[in-house]
Amino acid sequence: MRWYAFLLYPFALLYDLVTRLRNWFFDMGWLKSVPAPMPTVVVGNLSVGGTGKTPMVEYLIRKLQDQGKVATLSRGYGRETKGFLKAGEQITPQDIGDEPFQIYQKFGNNISVFVGEDRVKALEKIASETKVPELVILDDAYQHRYVKGDLTILLTTYQQPFFSDYLLPMGRLRESRSGAKRADVIIVTKSPEELSESDKRRLIGSVSPYKRQETPVLFCSISYGEPKPLCNPSPFFQKIILLTGLANDRPLVEFVREKYELLEVMRYPDHHDYSQADFDKIQAMFKQLESQNPVVLTTEKDAVKVKSSAPKGFLEEIPIFVLPIEMSFSADDELTLVQLIQQKVFKKGKS
Hints:
Blueprint lengths: L8 H20 L5 E2 L4 E6 L7 H12 L5 E5 L10 E2 L6 H4 L1 H10 L4 E4 L3 H9 L7 E5 L7 E2 L2 E7 L27 E5 L7 H11 L9 E8 L3 E2 L9 E6 L5 H10 L1 E7 L8 H13 L6 E5 H10 L4 H4 L2 E4 L1 E5 L1 H20 L1
Parallel strand pairs: 1-7, 2-6, 2-8, 3-5, 3-6, 8-9, 9-10, 12-13, 12-14, 14-15
Antiparallel strand pairs: 4-5, 10-16, 11-15
Helix pairs in contact: 4-9
């Protein structure tokens, strides 16, 4: 917690009151939660950003797309448009947001990618599509209670678990820790690959006061792939200028520092739109370190923004590589998650 956080305590109390009242109105039925017209999985968190929602959505797509047509629906945070849109060949990150665009680029026409601020109306429009999906994954919709999902997945990180955090603006929580009781499964993301059973029990014990008794707590780690060139094929060197626009880049920085020689980290805010001034800084940094034969390494999310916004010639002059990321579960936890989806989601589609 920041040293001056205690000064923000009155504002956190007010924020707590507002969010508790809103949730109470939903619980009492004074604000309506509408069942989705097709099977849905909700992916979200209690905190502001950085829990691995997009890698989790991609994991679910890979696991479930063989069972039927999958679609994703998100608000499209940071986009320059409004209303309901479907990703297609002419769509840009500015149209639908960087994360939906990343998903569309990765999976193409094997899935459908939609954005819309009003999830209820968006789901109604998706239900009117010629080919209605068998499953819709609602990205970052934990607080969007107007839609009642069939399975609700709550994500929290190993490094900054929600039970150790505080409400905005003291901390990073969007609502109180008790909001975890709405989850059907809680997943601790960015966990160490060799997490001991005693550490798992300790974390589950810390989560337990805030969840329903039957709600399982699962663990997953981040698995990084081999860097791939953003555009033109070029040799990959071990000396790295790391370019990030993430809510929490600590796990990424630690991985790069451990595996490669990290020369410099260029940090930008989450969902950052890269400008000409940013590209000038990147170019200047590359020129400064050029004698060491560096490459620029960035995330998949940042890569879509860089590729769409880079000035002419920039991508030919600087070797930029993209670091793929995936979620990885133990066999037991993966089986538990898949079984939950089968029981709570796909049985709805068959009923």
